[in-house]
Amino acid sequence: MAIKFKVLPRKNPQDMTAPEKFYAAAIGDGEIDLDRLAEKIAYQCTLTEVDCHAVLLSLVHNISQELNDGRIVRLGKLGTFQVGISSEGMVTEEEVNSSVITKTRILFRPGRKLQKVLSDLSFRKAS
Which is nearest to 71 in space by CA: 29, 106, 32? Predict the structure, then answer.
């Protein structure tokens, strides 16, 4: 299979008078939810679908809790989750405190097997 993409025009945000350029943008081709993922996993092992669903929900709960406690969550071949922050720049070190934090996000770094997926992709333009 190939990843579908469409072409989108975009302005240069640093020079709004510049002509638009055209860029490729990936198109999602369906989706899979937690229930279907649990069902697929159940067919590949000796656990029931309900057991797989419970494990996945527990994984989400525990990852959330560990991130909330400031820990890096390493999940072996799957990858690593970590909290990232952005803040305003201040003139002195003393001025930096929690009130200057402007954005939080969850960073995910895929494991080697998932990263390899990116090097093996093929693409086709959507009609």
Answer: 106
